[in-house]
Amino acid sequence: MNYEAAGLAVETTGSPPQNALHVESQQASSARQIRVERHTPAYWRVIFDNPPFNIFGPETIPQLDAVVTAIENDPELKVVVFDSAVPGFFLTHYNFTPPLSASTSLPSGPTGLHPLPDMLVRISRAPVVSIAMIRGRATGVGSELALASDMRFASRERAILSQWEVGAALVPGGGPMARLPRLMGRGRALEILLGADDIGGELAERYGYVNRALPEDELDAFVDVLAMRIATFDRQAIADTKRLVDFASLPSDPEIAIGWDAFITSVQRPEAQFRIKQLMELGLQTSGEIEGRLGHYTETLGQG
Amino acid sequence: MNYEAAGLAVETTGSPPQNALHVESQQASSARQIRVERHTPAYWRVIFDNPPFNIFGPETIPQLDAVVTAIENDPELKVVVFDSAVPGFFLTHYNFTPPLSASTSLPSGPTGLHPLPDMLVRISRAPVVSIAMIRGRATGVGSELALASDMRFASRERAILSQWEVGAALVPGGGPMARLPRLMGRGRALEILLGADDIGGELAERYGYVNRALPEDELDAFVDVLAMRIATFDRQAIADTKRLVDFASLPSDPEIAIGWDAFITSVQRPEAQFRIKQLMELGLQTSGEIEGRLGHYTETLGQG
Amino acid sequence: MNYEAAGLAVETTGSPPQNALHVESQQASSARQIRVERHTPAYWRVIFDNPPFNIFGPETIPQLDAVVTAIENDPELKVVVFDSAVPGFFLTHYNFTPPLSASTSLPSGPTGLHPLPDMLVRISRAPVVSIAMIRGRATGVGSELALASDMRFASRERAILSQWEVGAALVPGGGPMARLPRLMGRGRALEILLGADDIGGELAERYGYVNRALPEDELDAFVDVLAMRIATFDRQAIADTKRLVDFASLPSDPEIAIGWDAFITSVQRPEAQFRIKQLMELGLQTSGEIEGRLGHYTETLGQG
After folding, report:
1. Is the predicted ipTM greater than 0.85, yes or no?
2. Which one, A80, B31, B272, C23, has least CB within 10 Å?
3. What residue of A is the nearest CA neighbor of C245?
4. Is residue B9 pLDDT above 70, yes or no?
């Protein structure tokens, strides 16, 4: 669905985020990777648009933070759909080009967590409904943002979900060790995390990785109908009901924190550096073949 | 299956419940809505029979309480099946006709909870096996009683499950925010609670809302065979095994209590009153069209 | 797949377990029931080979303990597959022939638990990946070892899983009350434990009892490909990722301890002795008909 072609208003975030100055100074040096489209005051779309692969890096963090802050503070918003404008990619792994210090030097978010996991736990706790509509690859941060969302709907034919990190000698950092077992049980969570392979839409539904995998040509309409339905409901009833589900189902922030710390430790280990270097030489972040078949290529790497 | 036609004994609850006086005084002013049929001393059926919709109200509470007390105290009972005698309805939402005080003035149950959530947590903790056999609509209290039961089996063609409350600006009160995420994970639980739509038998099985959805003409026999099997087993082994599953899987009573309190708060809010009034004018509690397609009609309401 | 025929090395456990002396003295009086085949230094197969039924008894415990100790301590190992060499049986119930004291007199394991649950929790916490490949019956201890493993893959046509214990007036002792509800939710866990019936491969997948049920002729290749893939990954990344999933998903040791205590109590009750005696007279531990259709025969027993 092309919203600009459909004549819908395409707006940038208009509400004043708490850390607006910081966001603007960051955005001055980065191209805009995320757009917010307000279908109605109650229903927004957040569109990842960082071609060719929707890679997520330290430069993306202030942009997503501004969006999450707007989601938290808008008094009329009820439902947000996360979507992608990049064919073949919902949102994928962390950007390995910037130095690690570009990530580790970022100030903590409101929860006290590093801003990446901070934003994810804030999406889960926001008083509005978040829906990840997954078409193409949702790997690494992409999978983690989907898992932090309240619901996930995937294209049966075109969705690929994965936590690829162990295949690169990394520990995932955005919370999947906490979220996946609570969603689908320990066995399937360990298969996803330790098998670290690409998971198609049908299996993702069977495992509970997504709520449902819908036929490609039904996905947009299904998610839109659900979002419009929720947008007619009462904001307070949504928030109060969700808060009690949060109590029953969300991991604690410290549990998320130790996962992030384990990622930062892992990325500095020689074995991870050795494997990421091989992947970069193969074409990580530059080749559609590598980015599109990451599950396969991690298996071909030499061991340090 | 028509038990009377089949010549089976149809009995009312014979054991003396602890609060028998209170029950009888209540029952004097209310028609009997629940029947207990003792197939054998070890296997009972509890039949909801309050046509035309099996609506559950404050007047139903003492009747169900007497049944739950009998279930807790009968020394020979091993398995109870919850069933309905009303075509199209297993058990549905709370009765909005009596004043709120008719609900809030009821004395607490043995757990210290309001008697509605009290009965539900006592069903979960009873030393016998409870099975909800769902044919027709299980909405609101009906879904909550099914979720409090140990197992749920549904008609693939004729079961409809839902937590419709958010669609009426209510927070559900009988525990589904606590029970659904533990049963099926956060994502699908939030879809059921915040989408608040009707869920058919097949999807209910896929989501784990029920153990299995069976073809309509196999459901009775399947549940009967399972119940008769369990009735041959040792009562103590059942109780001791279930107690350890309870430890691993049941929410705490305070978690249930905050859900009930959130419901009572929500029902008094103007937006809920506004939406319930609209639904009553459309035919809630009087029209089979409204009661049968509640998921649809909540979406048509004006916003206050 | 016949590894000897395929020319692969077939080795016994070569690394010195911490309690080697004890193990050797026990093994002197018992036939070897478990073999370890090292496909590569990173990938082992542990083969249950105690025909005709792969019954697990107190005499098996030191043998499995030696294997688990080797798995914990081998510095190169990354993935272990549990498999069976006995047609029709993965691993089945506890051996009722030895006196109870042969089980209760065994010294506690490193966790402080009785050595049977001790080994199971150590498999779950080991820094390597464990995969149960289930072909034939996994009942009682067999199901419990599969549930303690990180992942479970089953033959769609030939796997049978069950916790049969309640059918013999026993409480299961190896942790399924703790593990099953966390894996598949309370309702399906209670059906498996209190229905105590045989579960085929297809239903086991639908319930999440196994990760996937694969067609019989694809199972070996699937598990082998997955194990070889994991064996190329970094050992530290596997261990660090798994540890955080453990935090989110494993029951505590005391929760496992109370399950074992409940089993020991139950097996001494007259009703359990009465039912086990009937099963032994029918052919438990001697007849393939009884061992192969245990779910059926428990239902035929007289009640004491």
Report:
1. yes
2. B31
3. A177
4. no
Which is it for strands A89-91 and A79-84: parallel, antiparallel or unpaired?
A: unpaired
Q: What are phi and psi of B135, to 5 degrees?
A: -130, 125
Mean pLDDT of chain B: 92
Which backbone phi and psi does B152 adopt, to 5 degrees?
-135, 125
Residue A265: count of CB within 10 angstroms of its CB: 15
User: Nearest Cβ partner of A236 from B186, B271, B298?
Assistant: B271
Instruction: Report residue A304's pLDDT band, with 50, 70 and 90 as the boundaries.
Output: confident
- Note whether C195 contacts B241, CB cutoff 8 Å: no
Distance (Å) from the alpha carbon of A46 to chain C's nearest alpha carbon: 30
User: Does residue A12 belong to the interface with chain B, where contact is any CB pair within 8 Å?
Assistant: no
Q: How many residues does chain C have?
A: 304
CA nearest B156: which of B133, B177, B140, B179?
B133
Q: In this predicted structure, what is the pLDDT of residue B30?
A: 67
Residues of chain C with pLDDT under 50: 1-28
Torsion angle of alpha carbons C113, C117, C122, C124, nearest 10°?
Answer: -140
Segment B139-151 mean pLDDT = 98
Q: Which H or E run includes B117?
A: helix B115-125
Q: List phi, psi (to 5°) of C81.
A: -110, 125
Chains with ≥3 Cβ pairs under 8 A against C?
A, B
- Take residue C19 and report the two structure tokens written for it: 């309690």
pLDDT band at A7; cut points 50, 70, 90: very low
Is pLDDT at A13 greater than 70 in this prediction?
no
A208–B185 CB contact, under 8 Å? yes
Task: Say whether A188 and C211 touch across the interface (CB within 8 A).
Answer: yes
Mean pLDDT of chain A: 92
Chain B's closest residue to A127, CA to CA, is: B194
- What pLDDT is recorded for position C304? 84
Helix or strand or coil: residue B32?
coil
Query: C185 to chain B: which residues are within 8 Å by CB?
Result: 182-184, 208, 249
Cβ separation A237–B197 shorter than 8 A? no
- Residue A8: pLDDT band with limits 50, 70, 90: very low
Quick check: A46 contacting B, CB < 8 Å? no
Q: Which residue's structure tokens are 């500095």? A: A268
**Alpha helix positions (H), chain C:** 20-28, 61-73, 100-104, 115-125, 141-148, 176-184, 186-190, 201-207, 216-231, 235-249, 253-267, 270-282, 288-292, 294-298
∠ CA C145-C148-C151, nearest 5°, is 100
Express each pLDDT in B38-69 by its tens digit: 999 999 999 999 999 999 999 999 999 999 99
The mean pLDDT of A56-73, rounded to a whole number, is: 97
Question: pTM for the full model?
Answer: 0.92
Q: Which residues of C touch B129 (CB under 8 A)?
A: 190, 194
Which residues neighbour B75 within 8 Å (Cβ) at sequence distance 6 or greater? none
Nearest CA in chain C to A203: C212
Torsion of CA B169, B172, B173, B177, to 10 degrees: -140
Q: Is A278 helix (H, G, I), strand (E, B) or coil?
A: helix
- Give the residues across from C40 on adjacent strands: C43
C183 → closest Cβ in A167, A172, A187: A187
Q: Name chain A contacts of B172, Cβ cutoff 8 Å.
A: 241
